[in-house]
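F.,

This is the one I mentioned.
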């Protein structure tokens, strides 16, 4: 089976999440905070734990358990996308309320970056299911999803403890954008390393790299995009129920369409004698 030690990488991302969000979430989890934070945190971490369980089970030849975890992903993935949309909605509400100078500057950029992450997740999950009969591709697409998640917690961790690591660091409100971009580029470098190690089966890492590079470019140059603030304000005016249903539907559609696309090829019909 491919990627023998991948569960260590996924586990490391879990640790980065705990470290990056310790001050702002885990240490104050019992305090007042939006429901969106809890949904996003729980679904993201459970997704990573599911990946670890799937990886270990298939390497231990526990195929039945691996299949059960695979079926569970059809339920979990739409909830994961729901969590992303809930965070976008909270950000949009804070932006419209002009809660602070920082959110007035960063809100639309965060929203756009999260939207890119959502599309990346759906694409990778769809392709993982479509290629479920090709083990290396299936595993690669699933294991690429933590890379999309990495930038947010690592950017915070880097800003708090190792700011010298960010060699493209900027000052002022754009500082957070430079942290996101640098974290994305770190994962692009890792993903492209995997791609060049096995280009025949490297499509997952190439796809993930494209999304992460797009996200890095977006957050870095978003301040130059005319009308971005107006678009985000217009999004905030959409009824929340509609956006939440859309998030769930996007996750469910990625799973359903991927499963259908990866079905066994139809057997040729024998010609009549």
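My design for it:
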């Amino acid at each position: 089976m491919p990627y023998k030690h991948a569960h260590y990488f996924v586990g490391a991302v879990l640790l980065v999440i705990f470290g990056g969000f310790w001050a702002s979430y885990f240490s104050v989890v019992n305090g007042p905070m939006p429901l969106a934070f809890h949904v996003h945190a729980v679904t993201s971490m459970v997704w990573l734990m599911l990946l670890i369980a799937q990886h270990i089970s298939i390497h231990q030849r526990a195929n039945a358990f691996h299949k059960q975890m695979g079926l569970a992903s059809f339920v979990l993935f739409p909830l994961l996308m729901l969590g992303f949309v809930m965070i976008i909605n909270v950000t949009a509400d804070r932006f419209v309320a002009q809660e602070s100078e920082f959110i007035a500057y960063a809100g639309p950029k965060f929203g756009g970056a999260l939207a890119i992450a959502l599309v990346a997740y759906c694409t990778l999950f769809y392709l993982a299911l479509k290629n479920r009969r090709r083990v290396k591709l299936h595993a690669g697409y699933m294991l690429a999803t933590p890379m999309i998640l990495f930038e947010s917690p690592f950017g915070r961790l880097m800003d708090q403890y190792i700011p010298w690591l960010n060699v493209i660091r900027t000052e002022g409100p754009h500082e957070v954008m430079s942290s996101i971009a640098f974290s994305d580029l770190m994962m692009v470098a890792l993903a492209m390393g995997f791609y060049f190690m096995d280009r025949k089966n490297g499509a997952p890492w190439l796809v993930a790299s494209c999304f992460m590079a797009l996200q890095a470019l977006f957050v870095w140059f978003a301040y130059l995009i005319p009308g971005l603030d107006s678009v985000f304000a217009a999004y905030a005016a959409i009824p929340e129920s509609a956006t939440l249903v859309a998030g769930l539907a996007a996750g469910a559609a990625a799973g359903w369409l991927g499963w259908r696309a990866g079905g066994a090829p139809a057997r040729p019909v024998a010609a009549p004698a």
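Residues 6-257 form one domain.

Talk soon.
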